[in-house]
Amino acid sequence: MAAQLLREIIPLTQSDCFTIFSRVKHNFDFPLHYHDEFELNLILHANGAKRIIGDHIDEIGDYELVLVGPNLQHGWFTNKCKSTEIKEVTIQFHRDLFDDKLLRRNQLGYIKSMFERSARGILFSKETVLAIMPRIVELGKKHGFDSVLELMSILHDLSVSRNMRTLSDASFSNTENFSYNSRRVEKVMEHINQNFDKTVTLAEVAKIALMTEVAFSRFFKTRTGQTFIDMLNEIRLGHASRMLIETTNNITEIAYKCGFNNMSNFNRIFKKRKNCTPKEFRETYAQSGVRTFI
Fold first, then answer.
1. Using one digit for the tens of pLDDT, what is the confidence trace for 220-258?
2. Is 50 exceeded by the pLDDT of residue 272?
3. What are the C-alpha distances in Å from 11 to residues 8, 42, 52, 196?
4. What pTM, to 2 d.p., does this model score?
5. What CATH number is given to the structural domain containing 258?
6. Which of the listed residues 141, 166, 191 is the one where a domain comes to its end?
7. Same domain, yes or no: 217 and 273
8. End-to-end Cα spacing for the chain
9. Range of the domain at 237
């Protein structure tokens, strides 16, 4: 039985390119949810609030800008936030606002890449937030074609910004088919996704890629930005996170079903990546408006 999650129907018609909401509030009161559209969310003065994107959980600071892809569960929660003037600007736009053929054009390559990464949620750096914030705040004052041009310009500038951070684990967010522009890497990723619950060694994936272990390690890190071990652990953690939410299995059982043969190692890796223990993760989801199993 899957966890019960709210599907939000947003007030964006097929005749509109996007919708924008701006509000000042003293808390966050909307449960964890998802919707078919992209969402760019700017939050100011909410230090200590909690962000949940997919299986990512963290506290936020005073400057928050996140791009959430279609059907990725997300939500913000008051947590430790004491502010009485939280500023939130939410922009939601159709997933087909940019046609697939258009996104394949060279000039839109960065936006295409950003949209692919947004399937796991993207957190932009404080420097980017400070640079883009005035334009997002003013976007609601523009109308017609000018507003669409400005939104596209904002998205382009975000797509080329530095230090953006991908949040949710790939296997949790169902992004196993993400393109790495390398058939060798994609074959390795397919093997990992099919065998994450078993022992997967560097030697066997290097053999799949027809490379030596040393050469493969360098190649894989260059193409994915992660070591083979880090990627394997990320995929395993994504599956473990989903099982923590959607099943009644105890934590030890989940760890072993996801390829972790040592509980202390599982707890250490889980806490290092998610800033909480598996037990705390499950409890946080239970408090977020989702029916989980504890």
1. 999 888 899 999 999 999 999 989 988 889 999 999 999
2. yes
3. 10, 19, 23, 40
4. 0.80
5. 1.10.10.60
6. 166
7. yes
8. 14
9. 183-286
